[in-house]
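User: Structure please.
Assistant: Input sequence and predicted structure:
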Amino acid sequence: VSELQEWRPAIYRKCTDTLWLLLFCLFWAGLMFISGYAVVAGAAERLVLGYDSFGNICGRKNTPVEGVNLSGLDMTNKKYVFFLNSCSQEIQSLKISSLSLCVSSCPQQQLNSLEDLQSFARNNGSFLCVYNLNVSSYTLNPKAAQLCPTLPVPPSKSFPLFNRCVPQNPECYSKYASVLISMVNEMDVFQRILSGILAGRDTVIGLSVLALAFSLILVLAFRFIQTLLIHTLIALVVFGLLFVSGVLWWLHYDYRNDPSTELETEKENVKFLLGYAIFSTIVTVVLLSLIFVLRKRLQYAVQLFRVVGKIIGRIPFLLFQPLWTFLILIVFWVFWVAVLLSLGTAGTAQSTSGGQVEYRALSGICYMAWYHFIGLIWTSEFILACQQMVIAGAVVTCYFNRNKNNPPPHPVLSSISVLFCYHLGTAVKGSFLITILRIPKIVLLYLYNILNQKKNAKPLFNCCFCWVCFQKSCLRYFNQHAYTTTAINGTNFCTSAKDAVGILERNSAKLASISCFGNFLLFLGKVFVVCFTVFGGLMAFNYHRELQAWVVPLLLVGFFAYLMSHSFLSVFEVTADAMFLCFAIDMETNDGTAEKPYFVDQELLTFVSQSNKLTEGQNHRHSRPFQDNEDGTELQPMV
């Protein structure tokens, strides 16, 4: 039998898991090398601003490409990409075969002759023929038919999708959209998501702000929670689930029976709407069943949040932790996307036989992209782990304090300083374990998409996917308690995880049912944010049925809303988990006598006893500790 751990809030600490911190620093040195290489070799402006067939990026000055006479032109005032043959385009190696030019404006009216092209150029300063053809030669040059757009030129509009001139003629528009979507479908997942975001970027930003507002409202609501507020939240969640499910089914029916639904984007919307509607209906049925089963235990959830709110009231700056975590994540994600854009456009410009430019990808880019992707997961998990350790450290500091009316000064700042001085390596190791489980999940999704046509492979992949998700959830749960144990004892990750598992195993029957109610209520809060954000997205995107495949932005908005609500509400979740672990340690270490008094306040002790219906256990607990303490493992106050 292993020796009982001496649970003592450490005053004098030492650095933990330093080798893992060194490994993380070396990994980030590799990321910095990739970032520098991407900035030097890449050209993200080509993807965002668009470029013509001669290697000129629209909207900026350019450098000449060797062997291409029409390269290196100043396109500062020519911001839009115009295709000379927009009604009959083909895809060749992920590129539109039609010759493209940078123009200052798109033709708003149909141009039927070379004279119309000449008049449009003189009146608007937008030249739709190849650059080396003078305006006065539009009607005189015998090769003008090859150097100018195919007539008639349909009216077009500068659509906010990579600054392209999109034809407005229904026939040409349909062909253009089909070709563009075919090209997007052949791209990788990142390029497809990026195109969807850029197509509806204003709506996505607005909905993200809406999700942020909902999350802040919920944080304040849970901080000052009352019984009426819980019932109001549940009523809103039920209404939101039913309403969103109904709207999804109605939109699917409306799109499916709309005779104008001919474009591939609209057909994709119909398919995704059906999937969304089915998924939303299943989630609604499951959550309504759980709400019905747990309706009689809601009062315990109210008491739980009163206790947690009391702790947060002593440490009010805990409510600001998600803000700085979110800001750090946003800065990192912007940096990551910028580097990935540069990597995706890293290539050498080479001239073709027709005097045009072709960009060829550099070798090794694929491996750099995978390394960069692992950096995204690991660093994001590390930032979240730091937030969890800061919150756990502050809660531990206040819990193991004899004078509850006089909490330690600046517990959050003290926890941050302890983290950065001693335990960054522990956060690195815990986040790396989560990353290891995330990578197989992504690989399984990739293989599932490849083998989607093989029906025999689906059940196997579903089982593997569920198993990986279950392992990740369990690991994330134990990681949180390992961080709390590190905040108490100052031990490394493995030792803390072993001690945390031991204490949870001995007290799981007493604490599992208590935390279950709080976690379920927090999950309902996340569902509330997602439901009403997605509803706003449905209403906003429904007005833009044209070219946008808005199912991808809507999915991203829902994911972002859940991530936002989880980031803010995790303060209560982490606080409750840390509080219950400290409570279990307190019960095992002390016995409530004058020599070994409890650190726990009477409100929390009464709540735990009532929720577990252990009134006789409470008297038994006052007579002796949970475990024998003859080895003298009494906790000392943290200073």
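The radius of gyration is 30 Å.
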